[in-house]
Design a protein that fits this description.
4-stranded antiparallel β-sheet; alpha+beta; Arc Repressor Mutant, subunit A; about 40% helix; globular; single chain
């Protein structure tokens, strides 16, 4: 089954809405919620959708608690937080 970018956006929003305003989520949480048994292949899509959302100002991409530019090269783990 193919997961749409819209489904990924909705899941990111749902998971963030369940957390405190300053809290973040891991992209793997989104992938696991959408495909509990086969979540790893979704990771690239989740990160790409999150970057697009960050470019639109809908969320922040964070590394080491710092907000990073969504157009900067990503290295290592990221977290997703409310804008």
């Amino acid at each position: 089954m193919t997961t749409t970018d819209y489904a990924v956006q909705q899941e990111i929003g749902r998971l963030l809405s369940q957390r405190a305003p300053e809290a973040t989520i891991c992209p793997s949480e989104v992938a696991r919620a959408l495909a509990p048994e086969g979540w790893r292949p979704l990771m690239a899509q989740v990160r790409a959708v999150a970057l697009d959302m960050a470019r639109r100002g809908e969320l922040e991409i964070r590394q080491r608690s710092e907000t990073i530019d969504p157009d900067a090269p990503l290295r290592g783990p990221i977290r997703l937080g409310r804008a």
